[in-house]
Amino acid sequence: MLKRLYTSWPEKISLFANNGQGHDGLIVFAKLHLSSFTITDFILSAVLKCCGRVSAIREGSQLHCIVIKHGYHRDNIVMTSLVDMYSKCDRIGNARQAFDEMPVRDAIAAGAMVFGLCQCGLTWEAATLFEEARFKDVALWNSLISGLFLNFEGEKALCYFRRMRLCGEKVDEITMVGVLSGCADMAALSNGRQVHGLVIKNGFGLYLPVGNALLDMYAKCGFMDDACVCFDSLPYKNVVSWTSLIMGFGKHGLGSSALEAFDRMEIEGYAPNKITFVGVLFACCHSGLVDEGWKCFNNMISRYSITPIMEHYTCMVDLLARAGFLEEAFEFIERMPVNPDARLLTALLSSCFYHKNTELTRNIGNKLLDLEPKEAGPYMLLSNFYGLLGDFEGVAKVRRLMHKRGIRKEKAYTWIEIDKRIHRFESGDRSHPLYKSIYAYLSELVAKMRTKGYVPNKSVVVQSVDEHAKEEILLGHSEKLAIALGLISMPPGSRITIVKNLRVCVDCHEAIRIISLIEGREIVARDHSRFHRFKNGECSCGNRW
Q: With left for phi above 0 and alpha for psi between -120 and 50, is residue 306 left, alpha or beta?
């Protein structure tokens, strides 16, 4: 009986590793290691995968010692798993050392190393290692392409994808999922449609992850009708399919459609998971469906026995606060069985700011600063709040805290796809070949915008510069640069779609609203939380985002 139990342990560890339950896998291995069970390459690879999934660097380093002790440092499969583990734990130096010590550096090991370098932002080194590889299989190509997409280098990733096909390398399902996911992140619709053609040509549509990636791509490119067609065309569906559809509706502010999809999901017998409920609550939040949100939250607990996670609580607080129920949101936080994190308090702070509740804004702001958030967003929100009140000591206090804690604003990027080419801008960017035309067009456009009531919102500029310099900084925001390129490069009347990695700033939101009126264009802007559809001087978000 004992022997039979032991022989199931390696399979259990592998199962936990493949299902993303890294901590459970490590617990099982700890029990196994205390027994007299023989360590094998299969077990070591599975446990290293568990360590990578949960960034367990201490346990991973101990496993490295076990690898050497048992002589598996000469085993390519185990060493590849070791490289992958160190990469996922952001220990790229250890990963490179393990890679260099491998007896034979095959394409699989090179792929793990290439992807790890990309994860750390070392894309030049990743590309160099890729070029040095004597044998390039589809897995190595996939690693580089996915890694470049992950590092926001979409145009370079698509170049390697084209080169892969020109070299005659056969694409596989993983290639399709990786490229479609990258196109989705950049809203590269033309490239995404081209890949869709390859999916049909190669018969990959029957592979569910590819079908789900197609659905996600069209949704994130702003074409929910096409996303729905892809969804209905799936030969079979899983919870990921339904969740992607619901998330898509939510990002577009189509809360009622998201709830209808959720009802269909339940009727057809699919059990929603915790991520599904994040999507449903998010959709309710961005459509002002307070009663429906409460109903879903309560059903999640009572009917499906799902314990709320911080994301669920954040959606509920955001839902209540956006609707103006600030005191109810605050009381909800007080009743929570867990302490709120910085993201949750930031959501409440944003609504307190919007609804001009000064007392609650100060209260929540102080609680938020006590948590020492690592992102710049909360600090910027508080700084703007104090600035509008004329409390310059408050502004100075927040900025001193940012400096003391080493908080820097995350670099903002905006992408636009024109004729299948991806153009990326950052604030003040002058690297584009057409930058002189872009800035000249913007200057003329701002003059027209002023006649329609546009006043630059200089409160979003944190630099200590004069008023004219602040206006110049606002003019160079990445959203405006991308839209200007679209206006001078795309046919009159055509829809312009941009993607920003952060929240669209208040000034750019107002500017784009007026530009859509002046230029007679539909402009779609997707930021890190939702879509904004600007048309005839109106935005689909109702100026609440």
A: beta
- Identity (one letter) of the amino acid at 92? I
CA 296 to CA 287: how far, in whole Å?
A: 14
* DSSP percent split of the chain into helix, strand, coil, nearest 5: 65, 5, 30
In degrees and rounded to multiples of 5, residue 494 shows phi and psi of: -75, 150
Q: How far apart are CA 329 and CA 312, in angstroms?
A: 13
What six digits make up the tokens of 152? 């926001």
Whether 6 has a pLDDT exceeding 50, the answer reads: no
pLDDT value of position 1: 31
What's the one-letter identity of residue 7?
Answer: T
Q: Where are the alpha helices (DSSP H) in 120-267?
A: 123-132, 138-150, 154-166, 173-186, 189-202, 208-220, 224-233, 239-251, 255-267
Q: Does 533 or 529 have the greater pLDDT score?
A: 533
At 141-193, the pLDDT tens digits run 888 888 888 877 888 899 999 998 888 888 999 999 999 999 998 888 999 99
> Considering the chain, what is the average pLDDT of its residues?
87
- 350 contacts 317 by C-beta, under 8 angstroms: no
Strands, sheet with 496-500, edge to edge from the N-terminal-most edge strand: 421-426, 413-418, 496-500, 523-526, 531-535, 538-539
CA atoms within 13 A on the CB side of 485: 26
pLDDT value at residue 5: 40
State how far the Cα of 448 lies from the Cα of 460, in Å rounded to an integer: 22
How far apart CA 409 and CA 337 sit, in angstroms, is 32
- Return the minimum-mean-pLDDT range out of 20-29, 312-321, 493-502: 20-29
**Residue found under tokens 């577009």:** 252
CA 372 to chain CA centroid, Å, is 22
Rounded to an integer, the average pLDDT of 25-30 is 81
Query: Measured on CA atoms in the order 517, 191, 213, 25, is the torsion positive or negative?
Result: negative
CB 210 within 8 A of CB 204: yes
Beta strand 538-539 with 531-535 is: antiparallel
pLDDT-based confidence at 462, cuts 50/70/90?
Answer: low
What gap in Å lies between CA 61 and CA 367, rounded to an integer?
Answer: 37
Burial of 354 (0-12, 13-18, 19+ CB in 10 A): middle
Per residue in 316-327, pLDDT tens? Answer: 999 999 999 999
Q: Quick one: CA torsion of 22, 27, 33, 35, rounded to 10 degrees?
A: -140
